[in-house]
Specification:
alpha/beta; Peroxisomal Thiolase, Chain A, domain 1; 2 domains; four-stranded mixed β-sheet; 10 helices; binds coenzyme A
Length: 348
């Protein structure tokens, strides 16, 4: 006779909790094209002036890729990732994941990150591109951090890179003065020091405002109300004033939201590393929070707005200058097309 079936009993044992782990910025690096495009260069070909550009944006020059030299997102991002890996003393073969934040990748298919991973020698790494425009690197940083904190991955390279010169109309004085090309990268690794890593983060989008900054590939992409002949297809269209107002308000709100999540005040933060979109936008946030100049890094005068490259370029410059100290509280803040906006508050 067979025994009657036993009722299934639930185990009292809980699933194992992942080990508490901190996350550290193990290395950073950046790469820039050699070619400089100064305001004087633009004055020669456009109805603009150095005075107008500096007053309205704070930009004096930007870097631009030379396609005939093979420069673009692939080459810049690869150089930045190599520099970050060398700084972290990490063998590319140990990478678990490569995330490339970019909206100007050399190819959509395959994702540019796949070629970068292969060229790095990151043979066993997963790779994907992340499109969140100027907010892209901060989105990537948050995702990579949480993948490591959760225990699924150990070593991730996050790259932010855009070659905006590919998508601005060189004859459009409203956009060409603003944008430049750059790449920055960070290698993230786990650490036993559980105090290190993200204390608070935000990622937001409002797609109802996509028309404020977009790139049409067909006339069908151009919404009613926008002039189809205003800018050529495949080139960026921007409602500058609208984006400006959005950025000023969002910048402050985002800092407030992030501080509230962490239970901190602006004074507690050692360094703000913000997307470089316009010196006046950075200045208004600095004044709003009563921050001293050295707490809000500005390099837009030298590089313009390099979209997803801007935040990691700042981070790499600051670390190289020894301005990101062990245990410092650093807040990354970015906003851009989408519209998107994101923050990441770290104890580094
Ligand atoms: N040189 C000279 N004059 C220019 C010019 C240029 N490069 N670009 C525009 N102008 C003119 C305009 O035609 C306009 O002339 P008008 O008054 O005769 O019509 C005048 O300058 C004012 O234009 P406006 O667009 O109102 O200027 P602004 O003070 O808003 O500054 C931006 C323009 C683009 C610098 C500013 O709106 C800005 O920074 N916006 C945010 C953009 C941004 O950050 N985008 C990326 C988001 S990640």
């Amino acid at each position: 006779m067979t025994a009657p079936p036993q009722p299934i009993r639930r185990s009292d044992a809980r699933p194992p909790t992942p080990p508490a782990v901190g996350v550290r910025l193990a290395g950073t690096g950046h790469a820039l094209p050699e070619t400089r495009l100064t305001n004087a260069d633009l004055e020669r070909v456009l109805d603009t002036s150095d005075e107008w550009i500096v007053q309205r944006t704070g930009i004096r020059e930007r870097r631009v890729c030379r396609r005939e030299r093979g420069e673009g997102v692939h080459s810049l991002a690869l150089d930045a990732a190599r520099a970050a890996l060398a700084d972290a003393r990490v063998d590319p073969a140990d990478l678990d994941l490569v995330i490339l934040s970019s909206v100007t990748g050399d190819t959509l298919v395959p994702a540019t990150s796949c070629r970068i991973a292969a060229d790095l020698g990151a043979d066993r790494a997963g790779a994907f591109d992340l499109a969140a425009a100027c907010s892209g690197f901060v989105y990537g940083l948050n995702i990579a951090h949480d993948l490591i904190r959760g225990g699924a991955y150990r070593t991730i390279c996050v790259i932010g890179c855009d070659a905006m010169s590919r998508i601005v109309d060189p004859s459009d004085r409203r956009t060409v003065i603003l944008f430049g090309d750059a790449a920055g990268a960070a290698v993230l690794r786990p650490t036993d020091d559980t105090s290190k890593g993200v204390l608070a983060q935000c990622m937001h989008a409002d797609g109802s405002r996509w028309r404020d900054l977009y790139l049409p590939h067909s006339r069908l992409d151009i919404p009613d109300g926008d002039d189809p002949d205003d800018t050529p297809l495949h080139c960026l269209r921007m409602r500058g004033r609208e984006v400006y107002k959005f950025a000023v308000i969002t910048f402050s709100d985002l800092i407030d939201e992030t501080l509230a999540k962490a239970g901190l005040v602006a004074d507690d933060i050692d360094l703000f590393i913000a997307h470089q979109s316009n010196a006046r936008i950075l200045e208004s946030a600095r004044e709003r929070f009563g921050l001293p100049e050295q707490k809000m890094y500005v390099n837009i005068d030298r590089y313009g707005n390099s979209s997803a490259g801007s935040v990691p370029l700042c981070l790499s410059e600051l670390r190289a200058a020894g301005r990101v100290g062990d245990g410092n509280l650093v807040m990354f803040v970015a906003f851009g097309a989408g519209l998107t906006w994101a923050s990441s508050l770290w104890r580094v």
